[in-house]
Amino acid sequence: MAETRYMTINMGPQHPATHGVLRLLLELDGEYIVKATPIIGYLHRGVEKLAEERTYHQFIPFTDRLDYTAGMSNNLAYVMAVEKLLGIEVPKRAQYIRVALAEFQRIAAHLIWLGTHALDIGAMTVLFYTFRERETVLNILEHVSGARLTPSFMRIGGLAKDVPENFETLSMDFVEKFPEYIDGYETLLTENPIWLERTKGVGVLTKKDALNYGVTGPTLRGSGVKWDIRKQFPYSSYEDFEFDIPTGTVGDVYDRYKVRIEEMRQSNRIIKQVITNMPSGDIIADEPKVSLPEKEKVYHDIDALIRHFKIESAGFEPPEGEVFFSAENPKGELGFYVVSDGSNMPFRIKIRNPSYFNLAALPKMVEGSLIADVITVIGSIDIVLGEIDK
Amino acid sequence: MDYHEMVDLLKEHFPEAILDYKIFREELTIEVDHHYIIPVGKFLRDEEPFKMDVLTDLAGLDYGEGKSPRFGIAYLLTSTEHIFRLRLKIRFGENDKVESVSGIWNSANWVEREAWEMYGINFVNHPDLRKLLLPDDFNGYPLRKDFPTKGYDFDKPFRV
Question: Is the CB of A295 inside 8 Å of chain B's CB atoms?
């Protein structure tokens, strides 16, 4: 008697194309996927629990380690959540610098995505070019914050320090050249027949499904929803800058590719506007109970030393209440739900991690497709397991 | 439509379900009786002027031992059509059962699994209630307030 039996195979957790320790259980009918089940948690560190026994400032370094390709953006989302809870306004210069750094980080994150995504599909050359530009961006970020991967540069109320003097020239050098480089990547991929064959019509996520699954970021915009937190709920002076939100039409891998490529151009445009309109002034809010004093003063001024010590050890006590703040990260909408009980440590921090929601929609996207397309789709939703597993 | 009018409209439709509301930092939090989460959720998703088509996040909450009711869930809803957000909050005890909202918003699937493993919240009608981030043989509920952060049996002497 004929009987249909599916073969189950295991992909990961140590698989180079799963972008981290992701395990997928694939049920196969020949070469076709019947059902895919993601298994996650190999990198779980209990960040939310750790937050509950730290002061608000002490949690900043943990945010770097969520999406480790976008440390600055994570910092920004967290400190702005706490600032919202406290109800403090950040000086204009700090807001502009934050935008510039977050956009640089977006470019760096998208470049690492483009290189690895193309590598997964078999276009190896792209990786070498994208990592060349990523190096320039990381050098700028390192020059500003002192770290390439885990900057911890933002502080509640502002920034750790002002940007160095040559930041503007360095940024402008990059911004002027970068659009040409993007054109270069596009000549390698956008009209490449092999690339089109592998990405068009693959991993389709419809508009309705995208919203239902809570997908955000380029993955949502690829499905044709014009939704960007920078436009919809502007923060950190994003309303001052002109930029477009690219969207796709079909919601396949190719659309998501096009959206991210265009996002790099828009980020470049934003940085240019930030640098040309950079206001002067303070880089941290004048809130003696919350914001840290200038580091240089701590060494020479007893009052600054006391204030520094007090804020770093005892912290500050925000009012009782709960806020949610989210920022548009390279991967999607990163949100922090912060509940305060009036003490110096958060009562609860819930991280709304974009990759997690995007990955939850993966089974829907790969249903009925070929096993080789799973790799393509994972690359196209751009996940980072450090963030998914928290 | 401002927040107060929205709450009034909800109260009109669900007089027993809406318990309280709060506006803090321009965010609206509505406390709902946990028995009514499904009808209120469906209403918010489908009806004007809400159209909350996205469940952005779902957070379990533990108010600590001795608090009554001890647990809670905060649902953060977003309307992509009208570009606004609101938060629903329910409170319930340890043995209460909570209806899963994954039938209304699919994105609740994983976050509810997480709330179940981290807090021990009993969801009913969930399609796939398995451990998500924790290993399958893990005992205990890590995000509860009485769970130690320094590991199990940290204060007890180590025996070889």
Answer: no
